[in-house]
Structures are given as structure tokens and as C-alpha cells.
Amino acid sequence: VSGMHCRRSKRWTWGSGRGARMLNMRAFAGAVAFAVASVASTVLGVTIDMVPIGNPGNAGYIFNGLGDVPYTYDIGKYETSNQQYVDFLNAVGQSNPNGIYSASMGSNTNGGIVQSGAPGSYTYSVKTGANPQGAAYANAPVMLVNWYSAARFVNWLTNGQQTGAAGVNSLETGAYNLSNATSGPLPTRDTAFVATNGAFVLPNMDEWFKAAFHNAAGLAATDYNLWGTATSTQPTANVSNSLLANVANYGRTVTPTLGPLEVGSYANSLSSYGLYETMGNAAEITETRNPSSDTMYQAMSGSWSTNTGNILAFNAILGGGSGTFVNGTAATAQIGFRVAQVAAVPEPGTVALAGAGAMGLAGLEWNRRRKIKARRQAA
Fold first, then answer.
1. What is the pLDDT of residues 147-162, one digit of tens each?
2. Which one of 83, 191, 246, 372 is most buried, counting C-beta atoms within 10 A?
3. The pTM is what?
4. Residue burial 224-234, b: 16+ Cβ < 10 Å; e: rest
5. Which strand (E) or helix (H) includes residue 374?
6. pLDDT of 322-331, one tens digit each?
7. Peptide bond before 256: cis, by omega within 30 degrees of 0?
8. HSE of 357 in the Cβ direction (CA atoms, 13 Å)?
């Protein structure tokens, strides 16, 4: 903005003089700040592939009202993997604060993470080999994690993936104010913090339902699919060929399925927005509490262990969008999670100021050009 445009060379050059230097420094600082703010979580350590969910203000589903989200947001393309959770544990889990690691992650055949060392110097690694279903542990969804640990994971992402003592402190605040709680009423989203700062979150029911069932091409209350595979036909339980269309990992002994497949396995059974495995594989934690019990949350998707009859609970109509209710302390070999991200909402004054600034800069440039033209005409 502070540079001078050279008409002959058709390029921008930095200005000179004290005033120009000050403006140049401000422009440079602004560019650096923008670049830093634009750094993805991939640079910080844990990679989260996100899918943008647009169509803000879409109508809720006509049968249950779910899916009405008045803002844009991002949601994980995949369920959170064992490798991602190991990176989290190695950053902050030296003393296993508030039980973010469960010993069953190592002992259960569908758990994928091993803890080594002594308290205060724990380290973590992904199990070698494959789970009972043949999926590499590193890429299988993390299981045996409860609501509180999943909430600490997203707080950690929000606070910049810090390590050591600072990282441990960052687990307790962000989208969720946990205050070292490991049981009891599930904290609700700190909407004021999210609106001001933006944050990674556990998706609430409206966010999860929209990402899984809404037809990305429509806005009406009827623009929903009955299943999370962008179709209204029940997906077939299939683990032998995950590349078929409209298939999912569920069925338990009927399929038979012995555990989750790697995240991203069902490449031709995506939701309308492009999410993998919103049906089966791992039951997914949401932020939304059971209306009758604030210690329980609604889990969606169904898991590899959900039988063919119970999968109907995860149909947009037959299940009423309710999924299944799970205690916040529960950590089983069927439960995992995916993350979402909600951007900060600029204050109206900030938006107006930015607009006024842009108009002012445009006015200055117009005035500068007008003076140059007048001088040339006078010459």
C-alpha cells in the first residue's frame, strides 16, 4: 500500500524518505502478521485436513430442525487418527495430565497407542503392525478417548499446539473451560471466546448433522440426504472392498468386521461436502449434551461395532438425528472423534473501519492520479 507505482516499469517500488520508511515498516509488519495468522496447523505439528462447510443460513431439516447453521465453518475431512493423537500426547503428556492417555489404548487390540517411561517423562508411540481389521494403527481412528480428552485436544489446537508446561496449561481453556474436570457436567462451548478468537471445537449436533447429511447444492429444508454417504439409500456394510460406492464399516458379526479401517478408506462414499466415514468406522463425539443428562453427549455416525439393525439410529429421519447417548467419561473401542473449526466474528466496528480504510486508500490513489494528470496537461 505504501509503495509507489512506477509507470514506466509497471511495477511497485518502495518509497523513500522518513514518512515513506514508516509506512513501509507498517506495511511489512502487516504482511508478516497476515502470514503468521494464515499459518495452517500443518506447520505447527499436527496436520488437520479441513473441509469448508458453506451455505450459511440453510434451513434445518424439515423432520427434526437439525443442520441449521447460520455461519460458515470447517470440519475435519477425516476422523482424528492415532498418529495425530500421539503427536498431541508427546507434546503435553509427559505426566498424563487429567488422564488424556488411557492404558486401554495400549492393551485393547483396537487401541493404537503405547505409553513408555515413568511419570513425568512418559513418551508415546503408535503400535506397530495392524489392528484386527488389518488397518495400520497409525492411520486408524484414535479410539478409547473420552469427551474430556477430546475437548482438551481441541483446546490444545486452538492455543497453538504448545509443548511442555505451557502446553499442559493450554489444555484447560479455549472453546471449553475444563478447570481440570474429568467427570461431571460437560462444559458448554465458550461462545464469547470463540466469537472473539476463533477456535477448534468438537462439532455440535447442528454442525455435525449439516456436514454429514445436508446436500451441499441446496438450501431448503428438504435438501438433506438420509445417510452420510450423500444418498438416501442405506449404505451396504462392507469391509472387503471399501472403494465401492455407498458402503460403510458397520455390521459387527454380520459383516463381519473386527475393528475400524484406516481413515479415508471409503473414498466413494463421502458426504455431500466431502467428509469421509460419517457412517460407521468410529462413533464420533459431539459437543451436544443429552437434554436429560448434562453428563452425557450425543455420539453420531455409528461404529464398526454397530449392528445392521442399530445403524438405523444414525439415519437422518429414522434416528431423528439423535444418534446415541454416551457418558462423558466413557472410553471404548468404538468411540473416536473429528474436530471442527469456527472463525472469529469481526466486530461491526472493525468491518466498518476496514471498509472506510479501503475507501480512503482508493480516494488517495484517485487524488494522486488526478494531480499527475493535471500537471501533465499544464506542461
1. 999 999 999 999 999 9
2. 83
3. 0.82
4. bbbbbbbeeeb
5. helix 348-378
6. 678 999 999 9
7. yes
8. 7
